Sequence to fold (110 residues):
Amino acid sequence: MVNEEIFEAKDVHISRLCRALGHPARIAILKTLASRQECVCGEIVDVMPLAQSTVSQHLRELKKVGLVKGRIFGTKSCYCINWETLDTLFNEFEDLASFLKKHNPDGSCC
Fold:
């Protein structure tokens, strides 16, 4: 286990978001949510080649880091992308890319 307190908060945040995106099913879920604005878990299951319990587990991971928001309506859960968190991730990636390029502008290595 890595002691995250020794790293910058921004680096820890981007790491957690990237870890949550580290499975192709979660990318597919985000694409589905983006194309539909929001949908219930069953609608996501219908377009995924995964069991309902597996889709729910992936949704839980996305929700845990704030990439997805969810509401419960009776027996159904409705999900949508948390665009604020996704925009933060995009901005943090841009900052990281700029920093890395600034320190190696000509792309030389070894």
